[in-house]
Amino acid sequence: MFGSNKKTQITSMLNATLLVALLVFCGTAVVSAEQENSMIIRAAQAHIGDGTVIENALIVIEDGVILSIVAGGEAAEGAEVLEVPVITPGFIDANTRLDVEDALYYPGEDPRLQILRLFGKEHLYHGGDVCPCGTSCPAETLHIVEEPCLYCGWPDHDPHGGPHDLEQELTESAREAEAAAAGVPAASALINEQSSEVVPHFEIFDAVDHGSEDFDRLLSEGVTTIYVSPDSSAVVGARGALMRTGGALNKRFIGPGAVKAVLGSDAYRFGSANRPPFRTFVSVYNRRPASRMGVAWVFRKAFHDALLRAGGHEPSGADTSSPEASRVLTQVMQGEIPLRIQARTAADIETSFRLCKEFGVSFTLEDPIEAYKTVDLLANSGVPVIYGPIFDVPSGILSGSRESRQSRLNTARDLAASGIPLALSAQDLRGEEGLARQAMLAIRYGVAPSEAMRMVTLHPARLLGIADEVGTLEQGKRADLVIWNGTPFSSLSQIKVVIHGGVISFERS
After folding, report:
1. Are 87 and 219 in contact (CB under 8 A)?
2. What is the 3-state secondary structure of 401-436?
3. Fewer CB in a 10 Å sphere around the end CB: N or C, the chain?
4. Average pLDDT for residues 168-183, to the nearest whole number?
């Protein structure tokens, strides 16, 4: 049963009490006093999640599972019933970003400063790529013949940074400021391993901070199930993770997710800064690729290396991925592990189809900002699409990216009108920009309210393969519910209570 220290009132508006003991008869359903995570709810309106709305719905929850939901049902005399105006399924974000525990490459200290500290010349650090004079290096007294300097690249000395480097530094500073303004915690740092561009053998779950406040923030916004996605700093990144936002910590993990690939500028713009080699010198700061052509090359070679290894041959070349990565990509090509591709521009979307056709790989498309240009391609392919966030002014990594310049507020409408089962995502946005408000924006720009509901419940549940457990209010499904004080997704309505697995996990005071 609920703990004795739990508030006994939900809100005066709801005019209901928590259940301390239950003995309810509804049809043939009996809920005994010994059963935990059990309650009876009567909703003036119950939005099932598939577009159906039941008036005067009686919902019986037993042991965290929906036992029955009927229109006009009657509870046993004397049973305590939670009376609510509107109820919906818990929301599912199929592409969220969480705070992470692994912040070893937290964007705070420049590694060049660490190098100077080792040289005992920390006081000479100025923040640029090389020394300020352009002719000498702060560490020159320790230069070794025929060995390049990690700081300046001696003997192939690179003069101090030009306008391009300055522009890059300003862009990165602006990006951090935009991310802070969007409510993205600075501690998000990097998730993907930065030693290689191909790391599908790593898993995002190993970097998740299970004590992160993000879980509570998401739960308070009605998001009860999430797919935790890696960031976009690698061409072929880590595997995601399917998790619950509430409940016992040891029961939140549902299972591993897809390998995430990136086709676009993030793979060489996000993360530790990618720089092309200077003349003949390659330093620890040079990462491949540094262009869209390079991104496609790394993606193709990674899968080609996997094919070679599967055939008993050892690949070669500077961009050769690890055997561990090839084993995972072989499973991707065999359909044992799913693949997601972030491709925002129309050109990158088309490239993703071309590359996956080459290797016979199915995939899910993430964040296709310019999807309105490729509606026919997406509709005919049947490729699942995760779209969002919907924005007028981009924030975070997008604020410094050209990939956001041709966004449209009505793209979700165009995709839905073409019959594409779209899942909405807020990614790393919270609060007024969170998933519920993404559904509101979709409605505002042309999506039918019933379809917007499916975009945050049924569609992502099917896409993630968990529609038998969550996504709709049906008998036998997990009791993840959101109670509203008015029309769902209306700018005038609020989420008042969130029930997670039959337990009231959030209550707005």
Report:
1. no
2. CHHHCCCCCCHHHHHHHCCCCEEECCCCCCHHHCHH
3. C
4. 46
Residue 28 CB: number of other CB atoms within 10 A? 7
pTM of the model: 0.79
The residues, ordered by sequence, that sit 6+ positions from 465 with a Cβ below 8 Å of its Cβ are none
Q: How large is the average pLDDT for residues 33-46? A: 81
Residue 175 has pLDDT above 60, yes or no: no
Q: What is the pLDDT of residue 395?
A: 80
Positive or negative torsion for Cα 414, 456, 226, 221: positive
**Domain 1-90+473-509 superfamily per CATH:** Urease, subunit C, domain 1 (2.30.40.10)
Give the start-to-end residue ranges of the domains of the chain.
1-90+473-509, 94-102+184-470, 111-181
Structural fold of domain 94-102+184-470: TIM Barrel (3.20.20)
Q: Which residues face 376 on adjacent strands?
A: none
Residue 51 region, left (φ>0) first, then alpha (ψ -120 to 50), else beta?
A: left
Q: Residue 12 contacts by C-beta under 8 Å, 6 or more apart in sequence? A: none
Ramachandran region, residue 446 (left: φ > 0; alpha: ψ -120 to 50; beta: rest) = left
Segments in 231-336 forming alpha helices (H): 266-269, 292-310, 323-333
How many Å separate Cα 75 from the centre of its chain?
A: 41
pLDDT of residue 101: 47
Mean pLDDT of 435-457: 97
Q: Are 150 and 115 in contact (CB under 8 A)?
A: yes
The better pLDDT of the pair 290, 497 is held by 497
Predicted confidence (pLDDT) at residue 103 exceeds the cutoff of 60: no
CA 399: distance to chain centroid? 17
